[in-house]
Design brief:
It is a single chain. By secondary structure, the chain is of the alpha/beta class. The protein has two domains: 126 residues, Rossmann fold; 133 residues, 3-Layer(aba) Sandwich (Rossmann fold), CATH 3.40.50.10090. Strand 7, helix 7 and strand 8 form a beta-alpha-beta unit.
Length: 279
């Protein structure tokens, strides 16, 4: 029997996702023979604001919230951490169970269920558009919807729900900040200059922005964009893809679902169709 060569064999792929969330995508790339290079371009930080937490908990406890939308695993983890910090985890979870819970993605739903929360709705598309579509068949007029998310989120979801007549609030439970410049960043920049990188994976608009800014210490922006446009560029979703496009970077891979495994699968398909672009 002829043994097939791993589809990503010998290909160096840079992952910009935070270290705490990168295990799955790194292992998937390695399983396909690729060389996964982890270069975290954001650091996730929980926002411990007791006043805002107490306000959120009070509204839940007093039936002033009809729907809670959790936009990510980070949102769930951060909210749980906040409730622990203020010694109200059990009270919070009991209050959450009184509302209709919407979870963006299977992993977000799984974490909520692990905490004993019944998830009623998981959108088909794991993005803000998917949330709007999932709630489009419900009469949202005067319904109180609370979105648990990052403080870096855009206004798309809030604005669309407001147009459906909902009363929308947002609770920012975590944020992100650029990482400290590391030797790894300089190594990646050199790899781009030396045609040694096959692909880069960007997992949020912030990873794009931080990479472009921090790399400026080693290379000018125009030259960097030129280097990026001769390798495979993968974006976790359309918002990240749009951020890259606005900076002049051509995006080659965007999975239909914003999932790590789907992204790797699309990279594998791309590798099977195209050889690396050169000057």
């Amino acid at each position: 029997m002829v043994r097939r060569e791993a589809p990503l064999k010998g290909k160096k792929i840079v992952i910009t996702r935070p270290r705490s969330q990168a295990k799955e995508i790194v292992e998937s790339i390695k399983a396909l023979g690729g060389d996964a290079i982890l270069l975290p371009m954001i650091e996730v930080t929980t926002i411990y604001d007791k006043r805002k937490f107490d306000d959120f908990h009070r509204k839940l406890a007093n039936d002033q919230i009809d729907y809670i939308v959790f936009m990510s695993v980070n949102g769930v983890k951060s909210l749980i951490d906040i409730s622990k910090r203020f010694q109200k985890k059990s009270l919070l979870l009991n209050a959450i169970r009184k509302a209709v819970v919407v979870a963006l993605g299977d992993k977000t739903a799984a974490l909520l269920r692990f905490e004993g929360v019944d998830v009623k709705i998981i959108p088909r598309e794991f993005n803000s558009k998917g949330v709007v579509e999932a709630l489009s068949n419900v009469d949202l007029v005067h319904k109180k919807i609370h979105i648990v998310r990052t403080n870096a989120a855009n206004d798309y979801l809030r604005d669309r729900l407001l147009k459906h007549g909902a009363v929308v609030s947002e609770y920012y439970v975590y944020g992100s900040k650029p990482p400290k410049v590391s030797k790894g960043l300089k190594t990646v920049v050199n790899g781009l200059l030396n045609n040694d990188i096959w692909a880069m994976v960007f997992t949020s608009p912030s990873t794009v922005e931080n990479f472009l800014v921090l790399s400026g210490q080693f290379i000018d922006r125009k030259r960097l964009i030129e280097c990026l446009n001769r390798i495979a560029i993968a974006a976790i979703g359309p918002v990240t893809g749009s951020t890259l496009a606005r900076e002049g970077v051509q995006v080659n891979v965007i999975p239909k679902r914003s999932l790590s495994l789907d992204l790797v699968e699309e990279l594998k398909r791309y590798a099977s169709r195209f050889t690396r672009r050169m000057f």
